[in-house]
Amino acid sequence: MYIYNLLLIPLLSYCVSTLGHPNQYCRGYCSSSYYCAPSSCSRSSGSFRCKCSQCPSGKISSSGAWDISQCTSCSNGKYFSSDNCFSCSAGKYQPYSGKTSCYSCGCGTYSGTGSASCSNCVAGKYTGDTASNCLSCKGGTYSDSPGSCSCKICSAGKYSTSGAVECTNCLPGFYQSLSGQSSCTGCAIGKYSMVGYDNCTPCAEGSYQNEISSSKCILCPPGKYASGTGNTLCTSCPIGTISLQYGQGGCGKCSAGKFASTASSSCTDCPVGSYSAEGANKCTLCIAGQYQSKTSQTMCLVCSVGYFSSTRGANKCMACSAGKFQSSTGQSVCMNCPVGTYSNSSSYKCYDCGVGKYNSVVGSALCKNCPSGKYSSNTGETDCIECDFGKYTNNVGNSICNNCPAGTYTNDKGS
What we know:
- The structure is a single chain.
- By secondary structure, this protein is mainly beta.
- Helices cover 0% and strands 24% of the residues.
- The chain has a two-stranded antiparallel sheet with strand order 1-4. The protein has a two-stranded antiparallel ribbon with strand order 2-3.
- The radius of gyration is 66 Å and the shape is rod-shaped.
């Protein structure tokens, strides 16, 4: 194809050596992407002109080219179209020169305008085909290597924020039960979690947690308990019960002979003079007529015969004093010996005064001797009998009266 340009070129402007290219006189004649055909430059009417030929396909030249060597290929990063070179658009590339089209960047890569190659997306980003830039992985996803076509989803128990190169375990006290999440949730009260948990665990029996977002539960101290799971507090043991150790799910009863009046970690021995049954919140005092001389006892003992206790809570029984007696067990008082009898200390019965003796007063510890002139021939007498006429006694404690000797007599009784 030849085009004749009417441009007038002064001869003296292009004087060259005779060894120069024959078309040099016609430079500046052809328009862009055209050149002077070989040996076609000639002078006419004082100007040089030539036959202009189009550069080969895929090549261009600036205006005024006078040789085919001045047609050049489109550089890499560009492509030839409509007699011109154009930059590859963003998301495409061309590594070679003289090409009529550009390649699309594959997924995981990108390019700007006029690129000779595509670049990998950095870790934490991704892209699809023909991308001009990379997109950050959204929260809950990640990419851990360059050139990613998509982001991976964080599993349950983990989370990520935008642009993450890896997922992060939920911290202790937090959890995430779903995949693909951008945050973790704090555990409710009564629950806990360790690192990377996908759920919170209820506090075990005997423990509690009264704060949110906790990584552990607290053991109930001695004297308190928490039954079941998921407790938010510990409960004081009911009176009469105890928990001896940390982390108890219930309270045990105090054994018989012991008691606990408040929430306690131990039971207290019942003191002397008292007792208790199992699970008691206090000890019971021994009633009158009973006693207990030892601690931690389950019952009181009855006072034996000859003994008594008159008040509650006695730790021993008292002996009946001389002149008194008690023939039954478990009594609160002693009884006076009747007239004609006596008793020693701790007696369970009274004894009749012997012959020659008497007792006219109740509650006596001993019997009196019949005085001189009197006697008692029977036991248990309350008084002595005077010696009859003709009889006498000159000693005390007589059981009989003596006859007056021959030749003597008595005028009165009781001589």
